[in-house]
Design brief:
Distance between the termini of chain C: 18 Å
Largest sheet of chain C: 2 strands, antiparallel
Shape of chain C: globular
Strand content of chain A: under 5%
Radius of gyration of chain C: 21 Å
Oligomer: heterotrimer
Number of domains of chain A: 1
Largest interface: B-C, 29 and 26 residues
Number of helices of chain C: 20
Strand content of chain C: under 5%
Shape of chain A: flat
Number of strands of chain A: 0
Structural class of chain C: mainly alpha
Number of helices of chain A: 5
Number of strands of chain C: 2
Helix content of chain C: over 70%
Order of helices and strands of chain C: HHHEEHHHHHHHHHHHHHHHHH
Chains: A mainly alpha, B mainly alpha, C mainly alpha
Helix content of chain A: over 70%
Structural class of chain A: mainly alpha
C-alpha cells in the first residue's frame, strides 16, 4: 500500500481500538455492545493487515497461538459466565439505571468478554486469510 | 412500504447474482446481498415511525410504552444473523483461496 | 434441572478441549470426542424416567419463560431422534478411529461442533434457535467436507457451501415471515396462534422454512449436493451426513408440518416424495461408486418417510426413519471395511469377497435385505405400514412405493453382487476391527429384532409419533399452562 495509507494507519489505529473499548464499556447504555465493539477492534487490525503486508510487519502472535488463546478463553467463559450469569440474572436486569456507567451489574463483564471473543475471532480470521493468500 | 420493496430488490439481486455468476467471489457477494435483503426486511418489521427506545422507565405507563416503543427483538435476531453470515463468508473465502491455489481459477 | 440441558455445554466444552490439545497428543482427540458423546448418551438415559412420567421435558434457558425466553422441549419424538443421532455419532467415531490419520485436531473439533448443532437443533423449541443450531451444523459440515484438502473435495465443499447457505437464508426468510405475521418465535406459541390468526404471510413463511429444511434432508429438488459431498469425504463423515443429516431434516419437517403448523400439505409432500423415491433409486441404479450409491439410496429412502408424513401414516414414517438410520449405519460400516480392503470405492474394481468372509457376508446380506424390504427385516415392517396407510387414502402412492421397492432390490443386489460375487476369485480375507465388529453385530441384531417383533415395535413407534401429534400437550407443557 502507498505511503499515505501507511502513515494514516499508524496514527488512526490506537484511536479505533480505543473507540472499540468505549463502545464495549457503554454497551448497556448506548447502542452497541460486545459484538459491535469486537467488530470495531477487529476492523482496526484488518486495516493494519491491509496497509502493511506481511513483508513489512511481523505478527507477534501466530495463528495457532491465537486459536489456542481463543479456545482457552472460550472454555473458561462457558464455565464462569454460564454459571455466574445464571445466578446473577436478576441483578443483571434490575440494577440498571440510565446514563450511569457502573450500573448494569454483570452486563459490563459480559460485554467485555464478548468484545474479547469477537475481536479475537475477527483478528484470527483476517490473519489466517492473509497468511493463506500470500503463501506461495 | 419503501423498505419492503427495497428488501425485495435486494433479495432478487442476490438470487440473480448467486445463480448467474460463474466467479465464486461474485457468488459470495451475491449471498451477502441476499442475506442483507432479509436483514432489511427483519429490521423493517420492528421499526415504528417516531418510536422510542425500548427501555421501560419508572414514570412511563405500560400502554404508552407498548404503543410507541420499537420492537427490539428483530435487531437482536439481525445481530445474530450477521455473526453467522460473517463466519460463513470467512469460510467461503478460505475455501476459495484454497481452490484458487489448487486449480488456479476462481470458478468451482 | 434436566440433564438434557447439559448436552450442548458438554459438547461445546469437548470442542474447546480438542482445540486446546496440541498436535503432539494426537491420541487424546478421539478420547475427548468419545467421552463427550458418551456423556451426552448418559444424560439422555438419566432423563428417560422423567420423560416417561411427564411425557415431555421442558427446560427454560436461564429461567425465562416462553414466549419471552428460549425453551428446550423434548418429547418422545425428539428423544428418539437425539438417541439415534448419538448412536450414529458413536458408530462414526469408531469408523474414524482407523480412517482419520492426519489433521485429527481439526477433524474432531469440527465433528463435535457438527454434533452440537445436531443435538441442539433437535432439542430446541424456538425457531430462531433452530436456525442458529442449523447454521452451526451447516458451517461445521462445509468445513468438514473440505477436510481432506483434495481438489475435488474443495470444489464439492464450495458448491455445498453456496447452496447450503442459500437454503439457510431461506429458513431465515421464513422466520421473518412467521415472526412478522404471528409476532412470536416460540414453536408452541406459534402452534397455539396459527389456527386463529394465520395469514397468507404465515403460509409463505412456512413454505420457505420447509423448503430450507428439505435441502438438509436432501429431498428431490434439493438433493444434488449429497452424492458429490459423500463421494469426496471420508466414510465416517459420509455416515454422519447421510444418517444424521437426513434424520434432522425429516424431524424438523415433521415438527413444523404436524406439531407446529398443523398444515395440510399432503399433496405437495406426496408429489415430492414420488420424485425423491424414483430419482434416488434410478440414479442409484446407474452409479458404480459405492459411496454415491449409498447416498442415492439414502435419498430414495428419505422419500418413503416423506410419503408416510404426506399420507398421514405417521407411525410408518417414524418407524422408517428409525430403520433408515440403522440400515445406514450397517451399510456404511460394511462399505468402509470393503473400501479399505480394496483401496477404492469403485464397485467395478471389487469382487470375490464371497469366499472366506462369512461374517461380513451375513451382515451385508441382512443390510441389503432390510434396505429392500424383505420380510422379517425392519425395512419390511415400516414399509408395510406406509403401504397400508397409502391403500386407505391414495392407492397410487402404494403402487409407486412398491415399484420403487423393486428398484431398491435391484440396486442393492447390484452392489451386493459386485462386492461379493463378481468374477474375481478369492480376493482375500477382510480384516474387521473388533469395535466395528461389535457395531455390526448390534446393528444386525437391531435389524432383525425390529423386523421380527413388528407388532411390539409398531406400538412403540405409535407412542413416539403420537407425542409428535399431540399438539395440545406440547402447547400446554411448553407455555406452562398445565
Amino acid at each position: 500500500m502507498d505511503l499515505i495509507i501507511k502513515q494514516v494507519t499508524k496514527i488512526v489505529f490506537p484511536f479505533i481500538v480505543l473507540y472499540g473499548f468505549y463502545i464495549a464499556l457503554h454497551g448497556h447504555l448506548t447502542p452497541g455492545g460486545g459484538f459491535a465493539a469486537g467488530a470495531i477492534i477487529g476492523s482496526a487490525f484488518a486495516l493494519l493487515v491491509i496497509a502493511f503486508d506481511e513483508r513489512d510487519v511481523e505478527h507477534k502472535l501466530t495463528v495457532h497461538e491465537l486459536i489456542d488463546l481463543k479456545s482457552v478463553a472460550g472454555f473458561f467463559m462457558i464455565l464462569i459466565i454460564g454459571k455466574m450469569g445464571y445466578s446473577m440474572r436478576s441483578a443483571l436486569i434490575e440494577s440498571q439505571t440510565l446514563f450511569s456507567l457502573w450500573s448494569g451489574g454483570f452486563t459490563i463483564i459480559m460485554n467485555l468478554a464478548g468484545t474479547f471473543m469477537v475481536s479475537s475471532a475477527i483478528i484470527l480470521i483476517i490473519y489466517s486469510l492473509e497468511k493463506e493468500a500470500w503463501k506461495k | 412500504m419503501m423498505t419492503y420493496i427495497a428488501s425485495l430488490v435486494f433479495v432478487i439481486i442476490g438470487t440473480y447474482t448467486v445463480i448467474s455468476k460463474e466467479n465464486l467471489i461474485k457468488k459470495v457477494i451475491g449471498l451477502g446481498i441476499f442475506t442483507t435483503g432479509i436483514h432489511l426486511l427483519l429490521i423493517a418489521l420492528g421499526y415504528r415511525f417516531a418510536g422510542i427506545a425500548p427501555i421501560l422507565l419508572k414514570n412511563m405507563g405500560l400502554s404508552y410504552f407498548s404503543s410507541t416503543a420499537v420492537d427490539p427483538l428483530p435487531q437482536a435476531l439481525v445481530l445474530t444473523s450477521i455473526v453467522i453470515e460473517l463466519s460463513v463468508t470467512a469460510l467461503a473465502l478460505a475455501l476459495i483461496i484454497k481452490n484458487h491455489r489448487l486449480t488456479g481459477s476462481l470458478e468451482a | 434441572m434436566a440433564y438434557l440441558n447439559l448436552i450442548v455445554p458438554v459438547l461445546l466444552a469437548a470442542v474447546f478441549l480438542i482445540t486446546i490439545t496440541s498436535g503432539r497428543h494426537r491420541h487424546y482427540h478421539l478420547s475427548i470426542a468419545l467421552s463427550g458423546v458418551i456423556f451426552s448418551a448418559l444424560f439422555l438415559l438419566f432423563d428417560l424416567p422423567r420423560l416417561i412420567s411427564d411425557k415431555i421435558i421442558v427446560y427454560y434457558q436461564l429461567g425465562w419463560r416462553p414466549p419471552l425466553g428460549i425453551s428446550f422441549a423434548v418429547d418422545f419424538l425428539n428423544y428418539t431422534v437425539l438417541l439415534l443421532i448419538i448412536f450414529v455419532a458413536i458408530a462414526s467415531l469408531f469408523i474414524s478411529r482407523t480412517e482419520i490419520r492426519e489433521g485429527k485436531r481439526e477433524f474432531y473439533a469440527l465433528f463435535m461442533l457438527l454434533l452440537l448443532g445436531l443435538s441442539g437443533a433437535t432439542m430446541t423449541g424456538d425457531i430462531f434457535n433452530l436456525f442458529v443450531f442449523f447454521e452451526i451444523l451447516s458451517i461445521a459440515s462445509y468445513a468438514l467436507v473440505s477436510y481432506t484438502g483434495r481438489k475435488k473435495a474443495i470444489s464439492a465443499s464450495i458448491k455445498y457451501l453456496i447452496m447450503g447457505s442459500f437454503s439457510t437464508s431461506l429458513i431465515l426468510l421464513g422466520i421473518v415471515f412467521v415472526y412478522g405475521s404471528l409476532g412470536t418465535l416460540n414453536m408452541a406459541d406459534i402452534a397455539s396462534k396459527v389456527a386463529l390468526s394465520s395469514t397468507t404471510a404465515t403460509i409463505v413463511g412456512f413454505g420457505f422454512l420447509i423448503s430450507g429444511f428439505m435441502f438438509k434432508a436432501a429431498i428431490a429438488p434439493f438433493h444434488a449436493w449429497k452424492p458429490s459431498v459423500i463421494r469426496h469425504t471420508p466414510v465416517s463423515l459420509g455416515l454422519m451426513f447421510t444418517a444424521s443429516g437426513t434424520i434432522i431434516g425429516l424431524y424438523t419437517i415433521f415438527r413444523l408440518v404436524v406439531t407446529v403448523g398443523n398444515l395440510n400439505l399432503s399433496g405437495m409432500l406426496i408429489a415430492l416424495s414420488f420424485l425423491t423415491m424414483i430419482l434416488g433409486a434410478v440414479l442409484a441404479l446407474q452409479t458404480t461408486d459405492i459411496k454415491k450409491l449409498l447416498a442415492y439410496s439414502a435419498i430414495s429412502q428419505t422419500g418413503y418417510v416423506l410419503l408416510g408424513i404426506g399420507l398421514s401414516g405417521y407411525v410408518g414414517a417414524v418407524y422408517h426413519m428409525v430403520n433408515l438410520v440403522i440400515i445406514d449405519v450397517l451399510l456404511f460400516v460394511v462399505a468402509y471395511v470393503v473400501i479399505k480392503h480394496f483401496g477404492t470405492s469403485n464397485l467395478d474394481k471389487m469382487g470375490g469377497l464371497g469366499v472366506g468372509n462369512p461374517f461380513l457376508f451375513v451382515s451385508a446380506l441382512v443390510g441389503v435385505l432390510a434396505l429392500s424390504g424383505f420380510p422379517m427385516t425392519n425395512g419390511f415392517s415400516s414399509k408395510l405400514l406406509i403401504y397400508l396407510a397409502g391403500i386407505e387414502v391414495f392407492p397410487i402412492a402404494t403402487f409407486v412405493a412398491m415399484l420403487v421397492s423393486v428398484l431398491t432390490l435391484a440396486y442393492s443386489f447390484k452392489m451386493f453382487h459386485l462386492i461379493f460375487f463378481s468374477n474375481r476369485k478369492g480376493a482375500g480375507v477382510v480384516e474387521i476391527d473388533d469395535t466395528l465388529k461389535i457395531i455390526l453385530i448390534i446393528v444386525v441384531v437391531l435389524c432383525v429384532v425390529l423386523g421380527v417383533f413388528q407388532g411390539y415395535f409398531t406400538g412403540v413407534m405409535g407412542i413416539i409419533s403420537g407425542s409428535g401429534l399431540d399438539r395440545e400437550l406440547y402447547i400446554k407443557a411448553v407455555l406452562g399452562l398445565v
